[in-house]
Amino acid sequence: MTPPALTGMLTGVIAVVLTGCAVLSDGDPFGEVEPAVLDAAAFPGPVRGGGILRILAWPGAVEDGQTRPDVDWVTPFEQDTGCEVQADTFRSSDEGVQRFVAEDYDVILMSGDSTLRLIYGNVAAPLNLELLPAVAGLTPDLLGAPWNSLAGRQYGVPSGRSAMLLQSRDAADVPTGGAATLWRPPASLAGRLAVYDSPMTIADAAVYLMSARPELGISNPYALSSEQFSEALALIADQAPSVGYYWSDYVALAQRIVAGEIDLAMAVRGTDRITGADRVPTTFRLPATGSTGWSDSWLIRNATPNPGCAYLWLDWVSTPAVNGAIAQWLGDAPAALAACDEPALREHCRSYRARDTRFWSRVWYYTTPLTECLDGRTDVTCVPYAEWAVQWARIRAAN
């Protein structure tokens, strides 16, 4: 029997997942729907002249000087184009999908764990890159990727990239066992681990199992058969008693590290803005086994009434100056590597390994899990995102 509290939690998760897929077929939520084809004749190109541009994005991605006067890439865009930006934020990928489907936003900044839900659902429009000249300056590693393109068409413009790293307090007695310390923690770390509160943590478990349990045959952490998925869930269940905090806000995580409550975390580099060497020295490292990470993408609504301002915005945020400012503010490595030539960004790019191709080659970027296995297998059915979300809700309700 499912406890009442868990039933309510799962109902909420399923509602969010299905709302995000409401425009899809009644069967497989990622099948049998052909993405829209761009009608170039219907939209010859962006023209300056104004209009309201409604943007939905992660907090900090659309700054207009209100948070801090010198952090503003919205005002110059409005002055240059005549477009008026109205921005809202969301706190999770599921929330972002739900709101972008249900409300009249023109543009969204979405992570790879959910972009395919918008692409397959005909919510996101395929892009004409000839109308986005600044995109040519973005790193090729992030273009034509499985999370922002489909069938040779580009749907998303990459903003930046981040990786999940192991962060440990230098003052703590943390074994140097890499990912094994996180997934097979010693008794000394009981209650002192922090893990990202997201279904994508299942992929982190799968990355570890790729090398720890090669007999499972996992070749892509987002393409898991039922058996492989069960093994990843079992690993998470074994780890759970040692987890003292599931984080969704890296600021709150950093505060717990500073307070001495957490010794080892699956974290992002942004936490060091608060921990800092002068407060609580910490060490970041990418496990030798690799890790997950993400590259957020700007998407345009397929039925936007203002494609001109939408295209102008995607081109604007792809220029080195603006892309670099966004990456520095959010704590990402910029997608426009030319931004790293600016003196103000050189140290940021070095710390975030912006040009370190070997580093990024060991990062598995978030991609929406589908029933059609992303690793190319056709003899099995893989576990889709909806089930990832439901099982993560079960894990969280039990811990």
Summarize the SSE layout with pairings.
Layout: H1 4-20, E1 51-57, H2 75-81, E2 83-89, H3 93-102, E3 107-110, H4 115-120, E4 149-150, E5 153-154, E6 157-158, E7 160-163, E8 165-169, H5 179-183, E9 193-196, H6 201-212, H7 226-239, E10 243-247, H8 250-258, E11 264-267, H9 276-279, E12 282-285, E13 291-294, E14 297-300, H10 307-316, H11 320-330, E15 333-334, H12 343-351, H13 357-360, E16 363-365, H14 385-398
Q: What can you tell me about this protein's structure?
A:
With about 400 residues, the protein is of the alpha/beta class. It folds into two domains: about 35-160 and about 295-360, D-Maltodextrin-Binding Protein, domain 2 (3-Layer(aba) Sandwich), CATH 3.40.190; about 165-295 and about 370-399, Periplasmic binding protein-like II (D-Maltodextrin-Binding Protein, domain 2). Helix content is about 35%, strand content about 15%. The protein contains 14 helices and 16 strands. The chain has helices spanning about 5-20, 75-80, 95-100, 115-120, 180-185, 200-210, 225-240, 250-260, 275-280, 305-315, 320-330, 345-350, 355-360, 385-399, and strands spanning about 50-55, 85-90, 105-110, 150, 155, 155-160, 160-165, 165-170, 195, 245, 265, 280-285, 290-295, 295-300, 335, 365. A five-stranded mixed β-sheet has the order 2-1-3-14-6, sandwiched between helices. The chain has a five-stranded mixed β-sheet with strand order 10-9-11-8-12, covered by helices on one side. The protein has a four-stranded mixed β-sheet with strand order 15-7-13-16. It is globular.
Summarize this, please?
The chain has 399 residues and is α/β, with parallel strands linked by helices. The chain is built from 14 helices and 16 strands.
